[in-house]
Design brief:
The complex is a heterodimer of chains A (465) and B (416).
Chain A lengths: L2 H11 L6 H28 L10 H9 L6 E2 L2 E9 L4 E7 L5 E8 H6 L3 H14 L8 E13 L12 E13 L3 E2 H7 L7 H20 L2 E2 L8 E3 L5 E3 L6 E2 L8 E2 L11 H4 L5 E2 H18 L9 H10 L10 H10 L10 H6 L1 H4 L27 H8 L15 H4 L6 H4 L10 H32 L1
Antiparallel strand pairs in A: 1-2, 2-3, 3-4, 4-6, 5-6, 7-9, 8-11, 9-10, 12-13
Helix pairs in contact in A: 1-2, 7-9, 9-11
Chain B lengths: L1 H24 L47 E10 L4 E8 L4 E9 L6 H13 L10 E5 L2 E7 L4 E2 H7 L7 H20 L2 E2 L8 E3 L5 E3 L6 E2 L1 E2 L2 E2 L19 H5 L8 H16 L9 H9 L16 H10 L1 H8 L11 H10 L10 H5 L2 H4 L5 H8 L32
Antiparallel strand pairs in B: 1-2, 2-3, 3-5, 4-5, 6-8, 7-10, 8-9, 11-12
Helix pairs in contact in B: 4-6, 4-13, 6-10, 8-9, 9-10
Classes of the chains: A alpha+beta (465), B alpha+beta (416).
Chain lengths: 465, 416
């Protein structure tokens, strides 16, 4: 039987799939690269009973794939579920299999970085900076791994027709970081009125200033301070992250003059909104920290606008109001941090002398907790690597790459995105309800699975004791 | 039930007697497998009774002033390693007083957590308990931190397991050891300190039979900024060697955190280690251990049976309903080793998956397994640990120049 005939069978499975053309393209790609191998795979199918070729509903296909979590190791790290996704790539939970310490990994793909302006330079700079920065309030970079790996791209049909795959080579860069429970942004979004109680804001703000002071003392300007770039660990330690657009001042530079900024618009100071040629770098971070504080305590932004131009126009005017609910001490700090003129803006040292900074706030009301994953019903931020360990030790784990999960699967299968990939673990709260509903049964199914495995364990325990 | 308990105790005593009789027959070659580790064994011991130690009192030299000069000490053989292998522990003599001490030299150039070391030394200065290893003094010499401490002549319980009790210590000895360790933990827990490093190699026994807990380097305070926290979350990142003893909630690293009950779990694992001769989970990969611990698998004491293939099932049954099972199994002739129902129950309580169900150190002290121990361990342990005898006279050991490397000489010092 020739390859061509196989191709004719394949579409029958996908009868009602409008992404058929996609499939064909991928498949063709596969033949180009490894024609023979694929041919062998197909041969195996033909030996099978051909009755299996019938119409299959797509949700059944989903089910088929979700039942298993394939263990994947990158050196000593075992990959867990997705924690979040940024413009640069995915962030996954990993487990250091030697120390059993939870970590997070930022997976950067070279191909993808090339598409982003300044992508590669930003990442290189971030790695360089993080390697030399060590502070309680700066996210710790444990190590960076490079991996040129053979990567599977599963065409859609592969779920049925054995595993037809193509191989592509791409360079991955894994940044192993310390594990944090969540980012401030998603905590704020889950909070009532999207703000923290005053004592909690104070708790984070003090740490933010500590972290910034350290960065500035090391001649580093972060330039992108915002709740989305502030992580919180399990024990409420704030970690400044994402130094992708940060700038390290030259060792011999006289002052903190900067020329470029790529930070988030809503947190930019007037001097950048107005497009000044040069500006004082440290004061940019002070302003952004001020906006962050404003946001944490009020749930609002001092400047808004329906688009970036309007926003910059408003920031450029420098007019904002502080709600009446904000007490006098805090509003004085905010006004000084959001000072229009950079030279008059408060410095870190002055902030540390400010009454509001120095005040002790009693825990008057409950802490805003880490938001609960809607799909997982996990309020404790439990390890997500457990099913993968199970696969590693009890499943049919093999180094055979056939089973390896492809990073690109998501990109190539637009039909069945999110639920397939993360197995219902996507962190970003921008999810639609639809997806949530879809994934709930899966989590139940998963629970069931762990239970049954626990029973299996009884036996293994016996044998080892 | 009580009668049963008594018989089982007698049983374990008789086991001990066996070992004593074995002592007579055993030749140096058939003595238990020695570990390659630096366990101090001395051949040709003439008279172990030394004038200083004849009183068998607790650290007779505790009131002495120990100087901070390396020249004030004569270093002898290396007897162990510490601080993740960055430190070597040697027997030494305090020249001025002629007392034996142990000195730990930690090489600061090696990869180790200096801050943890610093914290350990500060903490050890603040705590005083008869079952916690005191540090007389510590100082910096060249690139090393020296810590002077009393010589624990029996070495650690791990050493004992290596030296003679490859199949585990006698139950009575374990009871005394665990009682003292729980006293130490009760003291620490009352001060808001989680030890986090309870294991056989951190339990040291002095020549007189005094049991001391060491390994304070892993300790973690519950009190932070003057506030007594309910739990802590920090996971020790460089503790690969301790993973077997870590509690499930500690390994879990989630928002539930862990507290002093975590130490109780480690006590449970240590109990198994002392009884079985090796810690549970030590034969499987760390990740699998994690999985088993989190799914609530409870290791248990090994009881020898005729059919090794059936051990697993019986063991589970034993740990669940130990009373019945032990009484049944003790009747079969081929059993080499069994433990009392109380001991089984004790271990089961310690290894409870849910920390809230785990008793505190205080309440474990009144557990039937430990309740009836009336004597001081100093008066009981040395005889329980026979044929192993402590290292008593350091001056008979080969002298070691201060700057030289580790002497590889092993010294068997069984009294025969």
């Amino acid at each position: 039987m020739t390859i061509g005939e196989n191709l004719i069978i394949a579409p029958m499975v996908m009868a009602d799939n409008d992404k058929f053309t996609d499939f064909l393209e991928h498949d063709a790609n596969a033949y180009d690269l490894h024609g023979l191998e694929v041919g062998d795979q197909l041969q195996f199918i033909n030996d099978d009973d051909l009755n299996f070729i019938h119409r299959v509903e797509s949700d059944q296909i989903l089910y088929h794939d979700q039942g298993r979590k394939r263990a994947k190791m990158v050196e000593k790290y075992l990959m867990g579920d997705l924690l979040g996704e940024g413009s640069y790539g995915k962030v996954k939970e990993v487990l250091d299999t030697e120390t059993l310490c939870r970590r997070a990994v930022k997976i950067l793909k070279k191909k993808r970085l090339r598409r982003i302006p300044n992508g590669e330079t930003n990442v290189k700079r971030e790695i360089q900076l993080l390697k030399r920065l060590h502070h309680r309030n700066i996210v710790k970079l444990i190590e960076v791994l490079y991996n040129e790996e053979k990567q599977k791209i599963y065409p859609f049909v592969s779920y049925l027709l054995s595993r037809i795959y193509c191989l592509a080579y791409s360079l991955y860069r894994y940044m192993i970081m310390e594990y944090c429970a969540d980012e401030l942004q998603s905590m704020l979004e889950s909070a009532p009125e999207k703000k923290f109680p005053i004592w909690q804001s104070h708790l984070y703000f003090v740490q933010l200033i500590d972290g910034l002071e350290y960065l500035h003392s090391n001649s580093v300007i972060h330039k992108d301070i915002k709740p989305g770039n502030l992580l919180v660990t399990l024990d409420q330690v704030l970690k400044i992250t994402d130094l992708g657009v940060a700038e390290a001042l030259d060792m011999f530079s006289k002052d903190d003059t900067c020329k470029t900024s790529q930070g988030s618009p809503a947190f930019q100071p007037p001097e950048i909104a107005n497009g000044l040629e040069t500006f004082q770098g440290f004061k940019v971070d002070i302003w952004s920290a001020g906006v962050t504080l404003y946001n944490m305590t009020t749930g609002l932004y001092p400047f808004e606008g329906e688009n970036v131009y309007r926003l910059f126009e408003n920031i450029g005017k420098g007019e904002y109001t502080i709600p009446d609910t904000v007490d006098k001490m805090l509003s004085s700090l905010l006004t000084e941090m959001l000072q229009y003129q950079a030279s008059k803006r408060i410095t870190i040292a002055e902030i540390k002398q400010h009454d509001w900074y120095r005040k002790k706030f009693p825990r008057t009301c409950d802490i805003v907790p880490f938001p609960c994953h809607p799909e997982l019903d996990d309020q404790l931020r439990c390890m997500t690597v457990l099913p993968y360990i199970e696969d590693l030790h009890l499943g049919m784990y093999s180094d055979d790459e056939e089973y390896e999960e492809s990073e690109d699967k998501l990109d190539l299968q637009p039909v069945q995105h999110t639920p397939v990939e993360g197995n219902g673990t996507q962190v970003n709260s921008h999810k639609t309800n639809e997806i949530v509903e879809e994934t709930i049964p899966n989590s139940k199914q998963k629970k069931h699975k762990t239970k049954s495995s626990a029973r299996r364990f009884k036996f293994s325990a016996c044998s080892q004791s | 039930m009580i009668a049963e308990e008594n018989t089982s105790k007698v049983k374990s005593m008789s086991f001990l007697n066996c070992s004593r009789s074995r002592e007579k027959v055993s030749s140096p070659t058939d003595s238990p497998p020695y570990d390659k580790e630096q366990y101090f064994k001395k051949q040709n011991v003439s008279s172990p009774v030394d004038s200083e130690h004849s009183s068998r009192g607790d650290f007779p030299n505790i009131m002495l002033e120990y100087g901070n000069e390396p020249l004030q000490y004569d270093l002898y053989a290396t007897i162990g390693k510490g601080c993740n292998d960055a430190g070597t522990i040697s027997v030494a003599k305090h020249i001025a007083s002629g007392h034996n001490v142990a000195i730990r030299q930690v090489d600061l150039d090696k990869d180790l957590d200096v801050i943890a070391l610093q914290r350990e030394i500060v903490l050890c200065r603040q705590i005083h308990h008869e079952s916690i290893l005191p540090y007389y003094t510590s100082f910096v010499h060249n690139n090393e931190v020296w810590t002077v401490m009393p010589l624990m002549a029996y070495g650690s319980c791990r050493d004992l397991l290596h030296a003679y009790f490859a199949n585990g210590l006698p139950e009575q000895a374990i009871a005394y050891i665990l009682r003292d360790i729980l006293c130490a933990l009760d003291y620490l827990h009352g001060r808001g300190i989680i030890h986090r490093g309870v294991k056989a190699s951190h339990i040291l026994i002095s020549a007189a039979g005094r049991v001391c807990l060491s390994g304070m380097r892993m300790a973690c305070p519950l009190i932070k900024h003057g506030e007594w926290k309910k739990c802590v979350y920090r996971y020790p990142e460089n503790a690969q060697k301790l993973l077997c003893w870590f509690s499930p909630e500690m390994l879990e690293q989630n928002l539930r955190g862990y507290d002093t009950k975590s130490d109780i779990y480690s006590v449970g694992i240590t109990a198994c280690e002392l009884a079985n001769g090796y810690p549970p989970f030590s034969d499987i990969p760390a990740t699998e251990m994690l999985l088993e611990k989190l799914s609530g698998i409870m290791p248990s004491l090994n009881e020898y049976t005729t059919q090794p293939d059936l051990i697993p099932d019986e063991n589970v049954a034993n740990s669940e309903d130990s009373g019945k099972e032990t009484s049944n199994t003790t009747q079969t002739v081929t059993i080499k080793r069994s433990f009392s129902a109380n001991f089984h129950h004790f271990v089961k309580l310690c290894l409870e998956r849910d920390p809230y169900k785990r008793p505190s150190a205080q309440s474990l002290l009144s557990h039937p397994f430990l309740k009836n121990l009336r004597k001081k361990s100093t008066s009981v342990l040395p005889s329980l640990l026979l044929p192993v005898t402590p290292l008593l006279d350091a001056s008979k050991l080969p002298k070691e120049p201060v700057d030289n490397g580790v002497d590889k000489a092993h010294h068997v010092y069984f009294k025969r």
